[in-house]
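Input (structure):
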């Protein structure tokens, strides 16, 4: 401990003096020390709560959960929109044209099935829901001779022809025998 040079009424012991600038040795104010040690304690507690033991979700976790929820919600209206397609007469009419040109060779003029399955019964090999039918037409079943139409027709025509196939669903035209599982409803 340096010997005090002098004592100041306000600052207390003056320990150093350089070029007329005096340095005292005051105790730090309590409020200042309180904040200083408080932040340390908070930092340590925070580290245990959020990182070491993960008792509470971090911002990244909250964000990931939020994104997952949004993705789930986003996936749902897409199915609803596809289901609604069946009621969109313009899409069904346009889809019927596409069907006539591209699909009748294997599915019959009314979708009753020839090489490909009957599209008018209640039975579906790959699922009779709007989303299943849409993705099946888009991606095809190469191994079974169902072409993938996504790249050939483009998204708009695939949606339209999906609308047409949805309108065929359960119209029960006499044709190829049922294949696959019975389809109940879109939900
Ligand atoms: C070259 C013949 C061929 C053509 C052309 C064809 N399909 Fe298919 N399609 C098939 C075959 C074969 C299957 C059965 C696939 C299987 O068994 O997995 C099938 C299956 C399907 C299914 C699923 C049926 C089910 O039971 O799950 C749909 C829907 C379908 N086709 C729609 C279409 C549409 C729409 C077109 C025209 C854009 C089309 N197909 C053109 C041969 C064809």
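Output (sequence):
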């Amino acid at each position: 401990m340096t010997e005090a040079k002098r004592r100041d009424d306000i600052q207390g012991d003056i320990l150093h003096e350089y070029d007329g600038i005096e340095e005292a040795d005051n105790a730090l104010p309590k409020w200042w020390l309180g904040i200083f040690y408080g932040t340390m304690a908070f930092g340590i507690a925070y580290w245990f709560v959020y990182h070491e033991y993960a008792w509470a979700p971090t911002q990244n976790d909250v964000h990931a959960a939020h994104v997952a929820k949004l993705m789930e919600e986003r996936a749902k209206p897409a199915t609803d929109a596809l289901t609604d397609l069946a009621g969109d007469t313009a899409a069904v009419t346009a889809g019927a044209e596409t069907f006539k040109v591209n699909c009748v060779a294997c599915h019959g003029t009314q979708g009753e099935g020839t090489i490909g399955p009957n599209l008018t019964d209640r039975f579906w090999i790959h699922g009779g829901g709007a989303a299943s039918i849409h993705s099946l037409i888009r991606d095809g079943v190469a191994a079974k001779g169902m072409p993938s139409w996504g790249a050939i027709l483009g998204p708009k025509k695939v949606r339209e022809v999906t609308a047409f196939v949805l309108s065929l669903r359960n119209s029960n035209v006499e044709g190829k025998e049922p294949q696959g599982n019975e389809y109940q409803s879109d939900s």
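Notes: Residues 99, 102-103, 105-107, 115-117, 119, 124-126, 133, 136-137, 141, 144-147, 149, 161, 165, 179-180 surround heme C (CB under 6 Å). The mean pLDDT is 91.
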